[in-house]
Amino acid sequence: MTAETSQTLDRGLKVLKLLADTDHGLTVTELSQRLGVNRTVVYRLLATLEQHSLVRRDLGGRARVGLGVLRLGRQVHPLVREAALPALRALAEDIGATAHLTLVDGAEALAVAVVEPTWTDYHVAYRAGFRHPLDRGAAGKAILAARLQRAADPGYTLTHGELEAGASGAAAPLLGVTGVEGSVGVVMLADSVPERVGPRVMEAAREVAEALR
C-alpha cells in the first residue's frame, strides 16, 4: 500500500476478486482468513458491497459476487446475451420451444437472453427481464440443484405448470463459469417434456458456459 491508495477500497476489491475465483462463495470466516483481517472488518466490507449489489449472501451465509458487478458496465449484459445467443438459437430451432439464459439476481432468477423458434405455429411467449423465485420453474431449480450437488453434474431439471399453466420447462445449470450462477433452458406448451429435450438442454448449457469462459 502507498500513501495515495485506500486500504478499505483495496480490501473491498480483494473481496470481489476472491469471490470471483470461487464457484460456491465464501463465508465471513473464510474471507477473514484469506484477507488477514478480523471478522468485523469483513462484515463491514460485505455490507457496503451488498448495498451496491456487488455482493450477495445466500441463506447459508456464503457471500457471492452479485449481478451489480455486471451493471457496472452497461455493455456487459449485451455481451453475455451475444455470447449465449448462438447456442440458444440452435436450441430453440432444434426443439421448437422458447430457449432462455437465466442468471441469479439475489433470491430471484432473471432471464437475460431469450430466443423463440421461427418455425412453430405457437410457442410460449417469454421475455428478457422476466423474474421469478429460484424455487419455482425449471431455470431456478436447476441452479439450486447445482448448489446442492457441488461435486457432481446435477443433470437437468423438469417442471410443469409452475410459472405458467399448461407450460413445461427443462433447464440445466451453467457449470465452470467463475462468478456466475445461471442455467439454460426451454419452456414449451406441453403436458410433459419429450425425452430428448433434457440431454439437448444440457448440451446447450455446456456450449453457453464455454462461450462465457
Automatic annotation (TrEMBL):
Signal peptide: none
Alphabetical list of InterPro entries matching this protein: ArsR-like_HTH, GAF-like_dom_sf, HTH_MetabolicPath_Reg, Tscrpt_reg_IclR_C, Tscrpt_reg_IclR_N, WH-like_DNA-bd_sf, WH_DNA-bd_sf
SMART domains for the chain: HTH_ICLR
Record keyword Transcription present: yes
HTH iclR-type domain boundaries: 6-67
Keyword set, alphabetical order: DNA-binding, Transcription, Transcription regulation
Domain annotation IclR-ED: ranges: 68-213
Protein's UniProt keywords contain Transcription regulation: yes
PANTHER family: HELIX-TURN-HELIX TRANSCRIPTIONAL REGULATOR, ICLR FAMILY, HTH-TYPE TRANSCRIPTIONAL REPRESSOR ALLR
Protein name per UniProt: Helix-turn-helix domain-containing protein
